[in-house]
Amino acid sequence: MNKKLLGAALALALPFSAQADIIGATAGAYSWNQGWSGDLRGEETGDDKIDLEDDLGFDDERANSIFVALEHPIPVLPNIRLASTEMEIKETGTLTRSFNYDGKTYTANSQVTSDFDLSHIDATLYYEILDNIVSVDVGLTARMFDGDATISDGNQTGTSDIDFTIPLLYVGARVDLPLTGLYATGEIHGLKVDDDSIIDTKLGIGYEIGIVAFEAGVRSFEIDAEDDDAEFNMTVEGAFLGVVVDI
User: Fold this and answer.
1) Domain boundaries, the chain
2) How many CA atoms lie within 13 A of 115 on its CB side?
3) Whole-model pTM?
4) Are 73 and 50 a contacting pair, CB within 8 Å?
5) In this structure, how many other beta carbons lie within 10 angstroms of the beta carbon of residue 154?
6) How confident is the model at residue 244 (pLDDT cuts 50, 70, 90)?
7) Among candidates 84, 89, 183, 197, which has minimal Cα distance to 133?
8) What are the boundaries of the signal sequence (predicted)?
9) 3-state DSSP helix/strand/coil percent for the chain, to nearest 5?
10) Within a 10 A sphere around the Cβ of 212, how many other Cβ atoms?
11) Using a CB cutoff of 8 Å and minimum separation of 24, what contacts does 212-217 make?
């Protein structure tokens, strides 16, 4: 996935290099400690609501995310940002109660393996509306999910697809502390339509040395959505560490 993302970024850069000089290119990589909580319900009639922590024993998982952003001097055209986030957890444990999932019954005291994948790719078009001590970007993101939520007891496997693309509003901001190299940064991707919503926020502080910066902070991803009658009400949140290169 990461190789595809970087390849796409290079391909997108070619038209800009043919027409105008790129005045900004930024890339970053993060390690994110993800704590999972919430619940889901399968898409079949009679499926039960399943708690990720109490029923499936979900805990923490460490995963990575990367991004590449390209900015150019053509005022009417938006800048572009591509990002890839790993968000997958796999746990094995013994059930303390029985429940139905994907039309199948999982009984108490049986051992099950749960594998959930909320990994996604973002393609963001944005404009830089402030660029000084305070920088602000505003745009629109297409977030593409291609995963699933699977529960198996060795004899049967239930699955709900998490396979859709959703538009999200994007706002990113940075505030520099002059003459120190320190800055505060934040971004939010979010949208709420009727009872469905995705809110993804990241807040951090950074220290810049030349073209390299080191960042630390917290990220929180919340999804409350229904897809093909499957219901997802989950939160993935935790601290991150990252490095950013700005050329």
Assistant:
1) 2-246
2) 10
3) 0.86
4) no
5) 9
6) very high
7) 183
8) 1-20
9) 5, 70, 25
10) 12
11) 212/243, 212/244, 212/245, 213/183, 213/243, 213/244, 213/245, 213/246, 214/241, 214/242, 214/243, 214/244, 215/28, 215/30, 215/185, 215/240, 215/241, 215/242, 215/243, 215/244, 216/240, 216/241, 216/242, 217/185
Q: Topology of 2-246 in CATH?
A: Lipocalin (2.40.128)
Residue 22's pLDDT is 55
pLDDT digits (tens, 9 = 90+) for 120-147: 999 999 999 998 999 999 999 999 999 9
With beta carbons less than 8 A apart as the criterion, state whether 45 and 104 touch.
no
Give 99's pLDDT tier (boundaries 50, 70, 90): very high
- Residue that has been written with the tokens 């402030």 in this structure: 130
How confident is the prediction for the chain on average, in pLDDT?
Answer: 90
